[in-house]
Amino acid sequence: MYKRLKLADQIPEHGLSASVRLRSSSSAVQATISRSAKDGKGRVVLHEGCVVSPGQACVIYDNERLLGGGWILNQVRYSETA
């Protein structure tokens, strides 16, 4: 979950597939980004495992184009069998 999300474009209702950088020195990873209409908080679901921490920045790209970013609130792990 992230907070204070700022995006250049709106997130489609079905979500948005994009690249995400969690650290300036790390490579981008593919993710699906969605946002709650109720409170503006969103979810970044990484397509591969990464260690994330609350307070960490999350910067969202479409190839080289910066789409926006936000701050990570918490980490939720999903079971591969879920």
TrEMBL record:
**Residue ranges annotated for the tRNA-specific 2-thiouridylase MnmA-like C-terminal domain, each copy included:** 9-72
Superkingdom of this protein's organism: Bacteria
Protein name, as recorded: tRNA-specific 2-thiouridylase MnmA-like C-terminal domain-containing protein
Source taxonomy: Bacteria, Pseudomonadati, Pseudomonadota, Alphaproteobacteria, Rickettsiales
